[in-house]
Amino acid sequence: MVWSIGAGLEGKGVIVTGAAGGIGAAVAEGFAGAGARVMAIDLEQAKVDAVVAGLDGVGHMAVAADLRDITTHPMLVRRARKELGNLYVLANLAAILRRRSSLGDVTEDDWDLQHDVNLKAAFFLARAAAEVMIEDGHGGRIILFSSQSWWTGGYSGGVAYAATKGGVTTLSRGLARSYGPHGITVNCVAPGQVNTPMLMTGLPPEVYEMMRSQTPLGYVAEPEDIAGPVVFLASDHARYITGSTLNLSGGFLMY
Predict the structure, then answer these.
(1) Is residue 95 part of a domain?
(2) Strand, coil or helix: what is 113?
(3) pTM of the predicted protein model
(4) Which of 147, 167, 205, 207 gives the lowest tally of CB atoms within 10 Å of its CB?
C-alpha cells in the first residue's frame, strides 16, 4: 500500500456536493490533489465553475443542481460515471442551516427545507450512487456529513437542523450495513465549529468566542482541517472502516 493520505484515489471518480461552500471547496481540492477526478455540484454554476477552475489535475467538471429534486439523482451519478470514467466516491456535503432565535420562530418551511436538503436528499443521492457502484462491482466510498449537533442537540432555534444531522448519522449506519457486502463503505463526519459562512451568518461574536474558548485545541477549525479526514475515509487506508461517525470538533466533544 502507498502511504499517502489519498492512497488508491488516483484516477477515481468523485462526486462532491456542496462544493461551492467553504468545506466543500476544500474537500474538492483535497480529492483533486490526491489524483481523483471530481464532479463538483452546487446550486450556482458560476460558483462551481470557479471551484473547478482552481483544482489540480484534469478531467474535473462543474454541475449546477438543486438536490431537493430527487428525480435528478440517478442522472447525476450516471453522468459522473460516464464523464469521470467511473464513480468510486460520493462525498455529500450539501446542507442548509436556518438559524432562528427561538423555537417559536421555527416555521414549517424552515423544517421542510432543512430536512429536504440535509436528510432526504442525502438518502436518495447515496442510494443512487450505491446502485451505480454495485453495477460496476468495484466497491466504493460514501461519506455523509453530520455535525456535532447530532450529539449535543440543537441550540434554541437550531433544533430542526440538528434533527437532520441526527438523521444523517443514523442513516450512515444503516447504509453501511446494507452496502458493506458490496464492498462499499459508508461513513459520516461530524465537524464541530468551522470558519465558514454557514457558521458565521447571524452568529453573535460572544457565542463564537465561547465556542473557541471551550474547544481544547483553542481555535475554530478551518475548512482544510475537515478535508484531510474526508480524503482519508475515501482512501485505501480506510477500507476496513464503515458505519463510523468521525468526531472533528477539536475536542469540544469527546466520544
Answers:
(1) yes
(2) helix
(3) 0.94
(4) 205
